[in-house]
Amino acid sequence: MSSASTKIDYGKLFLPTAHAMADLAALQTLPQFRNLGKVENKQADAKTYDPVTEADRNAEKVMRDHLTSAWPDHQIIGEEFGISGESDMQWILDPIDGTRSFVSGVPVWGTLIGLYDHGQAVIGLMDQPFTGERFYAAKNQGAYYRRNDELSPIRVRTCERLSDAVIASTSPYLFEDKFRENQWQHIEQQAPILRYGGDCYNYAMVAMGQIDAVIEPGLNIYDLAALIPIIEEAGGVITNWQGERPEPGGNIIACGDQRLHEEVLTGFLKNQ
Fold it and tell me: The domain 10-153 is classified under which CATH number: 3.30.540.10, 3.90.1150.10, 3.10.180.10, 3.30.230.10?
């Protein structure tokens, strides 16, 4: 994989586009939050319930339209409408990450906007318009939190040991049975606080120094792309369970402290 350029000012070039898309998406999502119409199941013939709403589709559409106008030569990868274009510059969109939370009226969902350059995450933005919170980062430029008109840099916190850590995951039932009944049970027993639910908001809380680690299986690229720069630019580490770069997706661990990452990775996750 070729690396992203160290000479490009990604923030200056591309963050305005990401912010504009987040604003446009919010115009589609907010009116339907806690005021939903029809909710469909994308897996109608399967046992899994994977909800999608009109807000998901409309939000992705307006973001795609903006991108096509702003950067017509770039590729777009979206959860709802798939891949369009072909380029080493790839925008990855998830209009509502955490649709179950959205449908339930719980404001821990978010709009995710990421940009890969030659396969490396260089721009990330997570927007929670109901609470007025936005987390974003550009490669080599730090991570930031904006709420309404207030802007501040964010940083992970120190937490060396699992025995002191706040751990988060979407649901234990997403793990394979063998892992859940063995390694995950040990993690549950050692961590003093373990929180379920939270979706993309958990990762933002790692970057903000409120949660120490998020551990999740089977993430798609659009679940993850926006969150990588936010975690890394806040001083954290995010990899797959083998300690490799996370951009392709899969089983993911994000930690605020490199020492905690190493303890959990080597003790429980590697070779799973």
Answer: 3.30.540.10
Beta strands in 19-142 (DSSP E): 39-41, 51-53, 75-78, 82-84, 89-97, 110-117, 120-128, 133-138
Instruction: Tell if the pTM clears 0.90, that is, is over it.
Output: yes
| Residue where the block lists tokens 């009109």 | 54
pLDDT by 10s per residue, the chain, length 272: 456 766 899 999 999 999 999 999 999 999 999 987 777 766 566 556 556 788 999 999 999 999 999 999 999 999 999 999 999 999 999 999 998 899 999 999 999 999 999 999 999 999 999 999 999 999 999 999 999 889 999 999 999 999 999 999 999 889 888 888 889 999 999 999 999 999 999 999 999 999 999 999 999 999 999 999 999 999 999 999 999 999 999 999 999 999 999 999 998 887 66
Q: Delimit the domains of the chain by residue range.
A: 10-153, 162-269
115: nearest Cα among 253, 247, 249, 259? 247
